[in-house]
Amino acid sequence: MELLDSARHAALRVSAAPDAGRHFVQLVAEEFLPAALHYPILLARHPETGDLYAGALMGLVPDENLCLGPNGTLVDYRPADLVRQGFYVSGENIAIDVHHPALTQAEGATVFDADGGPAPALRRVQAALRQLHVGLPETEEFLRRLEEHKLIEPIDLNFQFDNGESLRLDSLYTVSLDALHALPDATVLTLFRAGDLQLVYAITGSVRHIPTLARRRNERLSGLIQ
Predict the structure, then answer these.
(1) What does the alpha-carbon distance between residue 29 and residue 140 come to, in Å, rounded to a whole number?
(2) How many whole angstroms separate alpha carbon 77 and alpha carbon 206?
């Protein structure tokens, strides 16, 4: 890990190529509304802590992204966690992993302009890092409230593809609308005033994209798309 420096890293480029290997991308609550227009938003648990986190499902197996366009990049909303790949907050500075695939590609967008100032790609990274820095604790609190009200439930995802492949996704969760609708009115009002309800409906509404992912994987397995 190195601190980002305009002189030392003047020739640095950042590429979106590693997006192709990301099948589940962490989101913060601020991203739920734009992300829900394009991807299923599901919940998972950190393997070390057991805490819930939210993510956009972009593929049905690891290292598979079914949401890329013909040029290999995302056609629609690109989450902050993808934008900041290879970049990290280090105190008041930005640090980089010089060995990260996003930063070791020959192609990509320049990080610094000719005068050593931040190029548009770096400004996008800076915005993404700020969004994550503020949004991660806020999202943790939101998910904690949902758990306190027992609104989290497992989601059953089973797929059967035309080539005979069967696939089951375990350890993913969503929000139970039945449990939400059973809450006392006062509790629902509190969630509404906290802005939680629009996030809940973004999550639950986004599952409509799951069949689209299954169709795309089926086409890929059938050789109809690459």
Answers:
(1) 9
(2) 14
Helix (H, G, I), strand (E, B) or coil at 182: coil
* pLDDT tens string 178-198: 999 999 999 999 999 999 999
If you compute the radius of gyration of the chain from its CA atoms, what whole number of angstroms results? Answer: 19
The Cα–Cα gap between 70 and 206 comes to 24
CB 175 within 8 A of CB 203: yes
Rounded to 10°, the helix 185-193/196-206 angle is 90
Task: Convert the pLDDT of each residue in 38-67 to its tens digit.
Answer: 999 999 999 888 899 999 999 999 999 999
Determine contact, residues 17/61, Cβ cutoff 8 Å: no
Strand partners, 175: 152
Instruction: List the chain domain ranges.
Output: 2-221
Q: Cβ-count burial of 217 within 10 angstroms (0-12 exposed, 13-18 middle, 19+ buried)?
A: buried
Rounded mean pLDDT, 197-211 = 97
Cβ atoms of 82 and 22 within 8 Å: the answer is: yes
Name 169's bridge partners: 157
